Amino acid sequence: MRKVPLGASGIEVSEFVFGAGSIGGVGASVKTRAFGLSAEQGFERLDEAVALGLNLIDTADSYGGGESEKVVGRWLRDRRPENLLVASKVGLVSRPDGSRGIDLSGEHIARQLAQSVERLGRVDLYLSHAPDPVTPIEETIEAFAAAQEAGTIGAYGVSNVSRQRLESILHAADARGLPRPVSVENRLNLLDRADEAELLPLVMREGIGYTPFSPLAGGVLSERYLDGAPPQAGSRIAVAGDMYYKGFHSPENLERVAALREIARERLTSVSGLALAWLRDHPGVTAPIVAPSTSAQWDAVTDAMRIRLDEKEFDRISEIFA
Fold first, then answer.
1. Residue 156's beta-bridge partner residues?
2. Any idea what DSSP says for residue 219?
3. Most exposed among 63, 77, 172, 312, judged by the fewest C-beta atoms under 10 Å?
4. Under DSSP, is residue 284 helix (H, G, I), strand (E, B) or coil?
5. 214, 183, 215: which is closest to 199 by C-alpha?
6. What is the pLDDT of residue 25?
7. Are 65 and 22 within 8 A, CB to CB?
8. How far apart are CA 122 and CA 99, in angstroms?
9. CB neighbours (10 Å) of residue 161?
10. Three-class SS string for 221-261?
11. Which helix (DSSP H) or strand (DSSP E) does residue 5 occupy?
12. Are 73 and 41 spatial neighbours (Cβ–Cβ below 8 Å)?
């Protein structure tokens, strides 16, 4: 698999990243714990990711109530893979009643990082999971900078940020002479292109990596729901559609996906593979985060690896989802 630079950080990552957010649950919600991958299934997906050439695993201290980090850590100790990078996230606090909060205080970051290192063995890239409306940005940056200075992490990044938030973070880091974030992890796919207007131009100008999650919009960007097929029990749309993929599964969007299928047929590839190729070839994207639940779902990644879109093809697909 091709390697690409993570912005101007000096870090090289595979053109696709493995997302471990389905191990132990679907994301961080208490309500979806029963629908995640088991430890055995997680080991299988991790083995398959490395065999395919992916060199970055993305997890978080809150995924599956911590189960994702624990399983990834056991897999790392058991397999001892070489030249693999481990990313985790901090700040998202899931409560027993299903509600969530954000804590990016220095104390919380230090405590959770120690826990993540204990679970994973190391953390190469550490990201804030979402903006904290209470903790001053300066306190959060100083906590990340201290961890980087101590060698506990290699670099840090941010997730689920707006352009305005990222500008504030960059300004605060520069004003204090502290390290900047090297990556942004936000949602981007053919059905959600909000970052294109404001955030991506800033990311590209400042030399920051961009690793988008939900590249297939919970599976809507595939053949799975075309021709009237309903969401199957246990699918991400059925389990977490209103939580993580709200608005994606709609008649209007499925019409667009059907149009994408025509192009996929011309290219003798899959809809999901073409959607991943479009995202990977996006000028603002470093590497999409993929999270196959089954071995068969890696087919979309291998399809995308065989496709390189020229500017005309990229624009044709973009126009369908404009």
1. 126
2. G
3. 312
4. coil
5. 183
6. 83
7. no
8. 29
9. 22
10. CCCCCCCCCCCCCCCHHHHHHHHHCCCCCCHHHHHHHHHHH
11. strand 3-5
12. no
What residues pair up with 5 in beta bridges, in sequence order?
A: 12
| Residues in CB range of 30: below 8 A, 6 or more apart | 65, 94, 95, 96, 97, 98
Beta strands in 246-305 (DSSP E): 289-290
Greatest distance between any 2 Cα atoms in the chain = 56
| Mean pLDDT split into 10-residue runs, the chain, 322 residues | 97 98 80 82 98 98 95 98 97 79 97 98 98 98 98 98 98 98 98 98 98 96 91 71 78 97 98 98 98 97 97 98 95
**What pLDDT score does 26 carry?**
76
What Å distances lie between residue 110 and 152, 167, 279, 300, CA to CA?
A: 10, 24, 34, 38
Token output for 61: 């201290």
How far out from the chain centre does Cα 214 lie? 7
Residue indicated by tokens 């101007």: 8
Can you read off the two tokens belonging to residue 18? 């493995």
Query: What pLDDT, on a 0 to 100 scale, did the predictor assign at position 30?
Result: 65
Provide CB contacts within 8 A for 202, sequence distance 6+. 163, 166, 167, 208
What tokens were used for 264? 């996929």
Closest CA to 195 of 211, 182, 179, 180: 211
CATH 1.20.1250.20 fits 3-218+282-302, yes or no: no
